[in-house]
Amino acid sequence: SDPTPVDTEGDNNLLSVDNQNVIDILTSMNRADFYHQLYSVEVGNGVDTAASTVELWVCDQFKQAQVTTPRNAKTVVSDGENIWIWDVSDPGYTNFLLTEDLTFEDVLGLPAFDYLNVLETAHITEAEYLMLEEGNSETACIFLATQQEEDADVRYWISLETGLLYEADAMNNSTQVYHVQQTAFDLLASEDEVFSDKFILPDGTSIIE
Asked: Which residue among 1, 19, 139, 192 sits deepest, i.e. has the most Cβ atoms within 10 Å of its Cβ?
């Protein structure tokens, strides 16, 4: 279910966020550089929905993702300039250069990691501080609603703790056609052993070396 905003009235730590200052606030936030993150993704038209999960391992500019759908699973790795993709069941991989028009997140079906570039050209219709409550946990977020195309509204929830995207959705004529939400997050150290096998191609080549 969607996160439920907690009533923050009277909270002394409530941030004064509005349409005019939200970009400056987001620009000043620090973003995590070493982490493990899990997203659920849904794309639909109001009738049919395609669901997937994206598991991310990020070590500065080096990234690995496992994208899983009901039909298949693929691995995607990047060194910040190049990208390699292969199906889990097939060791053959595809390699190409990343560009401004094709980013790592585009391949994963996620909003742009550099969301500030997107927001600077979007028409912001709403911005505020929200404390999201799910179960026994709370997440402090900056919320933005934007209009990026005619009849298309895109909303973002940015985590104050990590500076990363916590949730986003796209509405088209009041129908939710896209939804992504963080379901797990672990902050890691740059030398964490968990990264030791994350950036290796099927032929044994390490993209770090």
From this structure: 139
Q: For the sheet with 4-5, list strands across it.
A: 4-5, 123-134, 137-149, 152-159, 165-172, 175-187, 34-44, 49-59, 62-68, 73-78, 82-87, 94-97
Percentage of the residues of the chain whose pLDDT score is greater than 70: 91
Q: Which residues pair with 104 in a beta bridge?
A: none
How many whole angstroms separate alpha carbon 115 and alpha carbon 29? 13
| Contact status, residue 157 vs residue 147, Cβ threshold 8 Å | no
Picking from 33, 38, 40, the residue whose alpha carbon sits closest to that of residue 59 is 33
DSSP state of 62: E
Q: Which of 116, 114, 113, 122 is nearest to 154 (CA)?
A: 122
Residue 12 reports pLDDT greater than 50? no
Q: Does 121 or 190 have the greater pLDDT score? A: 190
**H/E element holding 29?**
none
The span from the first CA to the last CA of the chain, in angstroms, equals: 42
